[in-house]
Amino acid sequence: MHADKLFERFARAPANEVRIRGFLDTKFPNRPDGTRSYDVECHGTVCKLTALAGAPEQAIWQRDIQNREDAIGLVAGILFSYGDVFIKLEAFDARDAVVYLARVSDAADAAALWTCDSHDVRGEVTFDLVFDSGTRTVTTGEAGGSLATSDVSACLRGVVDDVLRRMPVPATMLGLPAQHRMGFAVPLKP
Prior knowledge:
Oligomer: single chain
Number of helices: 5
Structural class: alpha+beta
Number of strands: 7
Shape: elongated
Radius of gyration: 20 Å
């Protein structure tokens, strides 16, 4: 379902407006009178963004909100639709998960270099990651990529599974962000 239809479907969600303002405040300067140069209204996890007088030029703020490394784990997607801008939020603040997954990825990359022989192979391997809130564990799911069924993939899965077993999930982590695949380019390089 399109963001504009989801926006119309759900009730207003002021708590999500508070969540997204921290991100938007870094993209839109305040006007001379100290008020915001944008307005945002959220319904469910979909927020409609409106630039107000005093906002940067449209091309600038649209570029800035799309270059959203600082919103990974908060913003699931952005839709520009007939003059309207809709921002889809993650269902929860997943920034703790993003930090955790970065640590897991770094540890897995380092271990894979020593464990998995990939010198004669070229391609990629990705793994879906699955969070079990009951046991508070993350595990590897389905493999993808051009080497999904290879020996290198099996080795990499073992490495990632080992790292996930050794690295406890933060108590504040509620789930995984919308984009939660771990990938490797093969041959592995430091």
